[in-house]
Fold this protein.
Amino acid sequence: MDVTEKRMNKKERAKDRREKRHEEIRRLRTVPYFDHQRWWSAETIAVVTGGNRGIGFEITRQLALHGLTVILTSRDTIAGEEATKTLLEEGLKVVFRQLDIVDHQSIELFCAWVKEKYGGIDILVNNAGVSHNTGSDNSVECAEQVINTNYFGTKNMTKAVVPLMRSSAEGARIIMVSSRLGRLNGRRNRIDDVDLRQQLEDVESLSEDLIDSTMNKFLGQVKDGSWINGGWPQNNTDYSLSKLAVNAYTRLMARTLSAWPDGHKIYVNCCCPGWVKTAMTAWAGHTSPEEAADTPVWLALLSGQCVSGKFFAERREINY
Ligand SMILES: NC(=O)c1ccc[n+]([C@@H]2O[C@H](COP(=O)([O-])OP(=O)(O)OC[C@H]3O[C@@H](n4cnc5c(N)ncnc54)[C@H](OP(=O)(O)O)[C@@H]3O)[C@@H](O)[C@H]2O)c1
């Protein structure tokens, strides 16, 4: 068997495994939650960032279908109102609020509004994100926007919302919609510097400073044109790094919040939705937005489990 044939076989086997898992998820999604698993009600407040389209829109819809009150947020008011109208016409309990996660004032106004109207939040789904490359393109022209939105915006939103998270026996939840491209130890797409990888992997010594300075070092090299020899991930570099930072921040937050007492717990996990047919991928991919929303929704609704600081795909834990 030559190399090309071997590669084809590997691809076919991967496709086969993926299709089987998708089939299994479709079946799991038909299994209703039992009453004792339904810790939520119509008074449970979930917030989804970037809810006007793509995966975020589907996460909003699925959470609302389970009977929660979902705040669909969007940086663009018209797009957000239109998306909300669609879900209201389906009889779902969805409320629109403007939110741009790279705008500090927008985050502040959102938090003040949510506190005044609902008193707090039970679930935050950090879904908003950008990517400016499709296929094998690897331009870093928009690297600043990508890192600022996917990592710094997500981090700032999380920090602002944590004090608003309501205490409950089941715990509040934060879900980061991340990506396998941000894996620390991906075989074909990773940071070259072994020491830096180890520092980012060691959750005990991991710090916000380390994550921020790694992102700023990359952005500095983008500015002075030296990034190509910087030993950064080779595939979709800015986006991969932004999601690597999100994954590291998930583990850091989980570690910090694990010290909170029972009854006040906040569980933080991240997930990869797969390669999804949305505007971000120019509608290329293996997965529909509806299927992609499944794992974040499942994580948001987990009952009786104190899972935190983990990375998931297709309802299974995966390695960072
Ligand atoms: N599609 C994939 O294959 C894939 C794979 C792995 C991970 N993901 C992740 O999944 C999430 C959703 O992506 P998608 O595929 O559904 O892409 P999408 O259709 O492009 O949706 C992205 C959403 O994020 C919003 N957004 C961007 N910047 C924002 C900001 N500053 N403030 C608030 N909202 C902002 C967008 O708003 P506008 O409509 O105003 O632009 C849009 O609602 C992203 O985090 C993405 O990185 C996607």
